[in-house]
Amino acid sequence: MSFAKRLILFLIINFGALALGSWLMDNGPQSSWYEELNKAPWTPAGWVFGVAWTVIMICFSIYLAKLFSELDSRFLRSLFIVQFLLNVSWNFIFFNQHCIGLGLLNITLLTLVIFYFFFKFRMDDMKAFKYLLVPYMLWLLIATSLNAYIFIYN
Length: 154
Prior knowledge:
The protein is mainly α. It has a single domain (3-153), classed as TspO/MBR protein (Ferritin, Up-down Bundle), CATH 1.20.1260.100. 75% of the residues lie in helices and 0% in strands. It contains six helices and no strands. The longest helix has 25 residues, at 46-70. The chain is elongated. The protein starts with a helix and ends with a helix. The mean pLDDT is 94.
């Protein structure tokens, strides 16, 4: 499969994950449950989340298209599926089920998976492409801190 076809495939999958996660959170950020939580002072405005996830998924899709062009293995596909499931399920766990601690565990595991991608797959021709993961990594660190704050102070 060509790089362009892989890119289109990953864009569809990753933006599909965002749509599915949004649907699973059941009006989460606008719910009275979330509004009443004691949130971190550094919690961004709501619109920042949409912009951030759009940039993240574009960068992640480009990274994955390149990675899967260079290395396509059962392990890599499995790792991607784990990332997908952790990413989508956090919305359901945190916003829909109100399981803050389980959400924190989930997002921590997701963060570890994305950092694993960054440090594990360091092929010579992937050096520049791995930096496309930086927005995802930074956002997950912020999101994990937000979840941790809610866990500790609620």
